């Protein structure tokens, strides 16, 4: 496939990427305002934190796979990482629609560290959405050179979001009711 054909294929997805990149964060923010009086059968934060940890592990394994030129394994692992991220998001929304947010109870340096990690996690979790989508589209449209170029940005952003999700959970977990 030529670069022109790759560009045309990429552009077919641009509108969807923009829509998802806006709709997902807006929907999550809107759903935070909706409270459902339902008690979930499980306590979700440790489950979705584990999902974040697993996402980080899968991303590292995908990185190792591509370094070893195991392209099919890399593709499968990235699909798993995307699936885990979607699963995390669904559980996160379900938890926050059915439970009140837990305030951080730490003080001093721990408090500043927690809020720094939380803020960067939230901001980068929004920023990473179009990066993941563009990177994925460039792979599925066989635009490999552009895929490699953006993946060098996407990978560390996505990994940071996954890891800091776990850190936020660990730091807030002593304050859950």
Task: Please provide a written account of the structure.
This protein has 177 residues and is an all-alpha fold. The N and C termini lie far apart (56 Å). It has one domain. The protein is globular. It has helices at residues 3-32, 44-67, 71-98, 108-140, 144-172. Helix 1 (3-32) packs antiparallel against helix 4 and helix 2 packs antiparallel against helix 3 (71-98). The mean pLDDT is 92. The chain contains five helices and no strands. Keywords: Membrane, Transmembrane, Transmembrane helix. It holds the Pfam family DUF420. InterPro entries: DUF420. The chain crosses the membrane at residues 16-34, 46-65, 77-95, 115-137, 157-176. This is DUF420 domain-containing protein.
Which H/E pattern describes the elements?
A: HHHHH
Distance between the termini: 56 Å
Tally of extended strands? 0
**Gross morphology:** globular
Q: What is the residue-mean pLDDT, rounded to a whole number?
A: 92
Give the uncertain stretches in residue-range form: none
Structural Rg: 18 Å
Q: With helices defined by DSSP (H or I, 4 residues minimum), what is the helix count?
A: 5
What percent of the residues sit in helical stretches (DSSP H or I)? Answer: over 70%
Structural class computed from helices and strand pairing? mainly alpha
Major sheet: size, sense and barrel closure? none
Classify the beta-strand content into a percent band: under 5%
What is the domain tally?
A: 1
């Amino acid at each position: 496939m030529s670069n022109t054909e790759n560009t045309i294929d990429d552009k077919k997805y641009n509108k969807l990427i923009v829509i998802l990149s806006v709709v997902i964060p807006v929907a999550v923010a809107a759903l935070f305002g909706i409270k459902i009086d339902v008690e979930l059968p499980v306590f979700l934060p440790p489950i979705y934190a584990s999902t974040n940890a697993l996402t980080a592990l899968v991303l590292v394994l995908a990185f190792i796979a591509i370094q070893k030129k195991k392209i099919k394994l890399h593709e499968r692992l990235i699909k798993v990482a995307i699936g885990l991220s979607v699963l995390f998001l669904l559980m996160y929304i379900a938890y926050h629609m059915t439970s009140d947010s837990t305030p951080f109870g730490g003080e001093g340096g721990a408090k500043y560290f927690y809020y720094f990690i939380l803020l960067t996690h939230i901001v980068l979790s929004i920023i990473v959405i179009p990066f993941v989508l563009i990177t994925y589209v460039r792979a599925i449209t066989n635009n490999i050179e552009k895929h490699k170029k953006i993946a060098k940005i996407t990978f560390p952003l996505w990994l940071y979001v996954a890891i800091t999700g776990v850190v936020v959970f660990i730091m807030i977990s002593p304050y859950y009711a």
